[in-house]
Every structure is written in structure tokens, then in C-alpha cells.
Amino acid sequence: MYFATTHCGLSLQIVNFIWKMKEILSLIPSLLEIARQAATAILEIYNSEADFGVEAKSDDSPLTRADRAANEVICRGLEALPMKYPIISEENKLLPYAERRSWTRCWLVDPLDGTKEFIKKNGDFTVNIALVENGDVVAGVVGIPAQDELYWAVRGEGAFKIKYEVESPIEAASFSKEDIGLNIVCSRSHLTPETEAFIAKYNSPNLVSRGSALKFLLLAKGEAHVYPRIAPTMEWDTAAAQIILEEAGGKVLVYETGEPMRYNREQLLNPSFVGYGRITGD
Description:
By secondary structure, the chain is an alpha+beta fold. Strands 3-4-5-6-7-8-9 form a 7-stranded mixed beta sheet, with helices on both faces.
């Protein structure tokens, strides 16, 4: 009787999980369209305006007209969806944890991740939209406006790239930490001494410098193997790209504990972390 009850309970959990993921999967076409519209708003400014209206925020990070325009597009689009959840965005007023802690689901948004790269006009900036449930990312969309690319993932459904309206699955590369010549991704703007010490443990690695969430995507596509980030990031910087990497077969672990990254925490500042492709023999 105990076995039968447990078996039925597990079956019900599986059915509920499948139903929930299918429900979330139904949001993806709308999320992709919202990301496209945000990319269009960004590129209109990127390609036609000499003055981006750059301002310094309270933490000295830059803010441009493109950040604001993309944020307006995304928030308006998310608020129009049939399933309505609170939005945590880099460009919105942040609510206290006393209110956020009760949220079962919420959106995490970075309307223009890589503003410094946007200002430099090197193309290394993204649009990040993630859905978080009870601290775990369950869906994510990342757009690369300058390359006309979109990436998306839903928990248990795999990871995908859309280029020229063609959708194809992506998969992280398999590797061993002892392999020679691994591609290790580092930030253009945040290469710390701790990161350099981490990289030094590898066997003749190749360093790949990219900006924004593109670093995660290189791992998810199998073009790189490891991404150490022993420097500050915020939750909206990483959530959407994290699930894309995880659904491609990789993982993102807190640097000091080895635990998975979680979201909508009291402190929205992320701990240091390391992203990996598909590690073998670990």
C-alpha cells in the first residue's frame, strides 16, 4: 500500500510538472516577440543616433536612452501577457525583499545587458528575459540585437537558437577539466586577479573575451567550455542565459559553495560563479 501510494504521488508530481512546463512553454512565442521588439527599439538608437544620452546611475554604471526604450517595450509586453507576474528589472524601482519574498513567480529583466559594450558599439549586448519560480529559473529568452539572433529555453524542453527565422537546438560541448586548450570565456571589463588565478589552473587554455550574456551563450553553443565570473553581477544579468546553458547540458555553480545559482534573493547582487559546458568524468 505504501509503495502504491508513493508511486501515485510521484506520478501526480510528474504530471503536474509536465503541465506546468507546457503552460510556461506556451509563453515562449510571446516572449520571443517581446525580445524582438526590444531589439528593434535598441537598434533604432544604436544605428541612427550619435548621442546615446548616457547618464551615470547611483552605482556609476551607465544608462542610455536605449536601456529605457527597451525596458518600456519589455515591461509593457510582459504586463499584457495572460499570465501576469511581478517584474524585477534593472531599470525599474526595486521593491523590498519583505514584499518580494512572497512571490511564487516573477520576471527578471535586463533590457540592455552590456550597456558599456553598446556605448563602444562593438555589438556585444543582449536583451535578457527570465521567468523565476520559487528561486529557480524555469524559462529564459536572450536576444542579440546586433546579430539578429534569439535564444530560448524552458526547463526540461532543451535550448534553441533562432537565426534568420530558422530554429535549431543547441548543445554544450563535452570536455574534461584536464583537457589541453579549453576555451575559457572572460569578461571584457571585469578580469580580476581572482579570475586570472582560476584560469591559471587549466592546461594551456585559450581566452575568449566577450561582453554581456554572450559569454553564457558561447558555452551553450559548444564554442567555449568554462566561464568564471569572480566579480559582481546582478540577478538580471545571468538568469535568462543560465537556463539556456543548463538546458544545453551545462551548469552554473556558485564559486565558493558549488551550489546552483538561485534567484529573487534578499540581495539581488549575485555571488561569484562559474559556468561550465558538459563536464565529463566529474
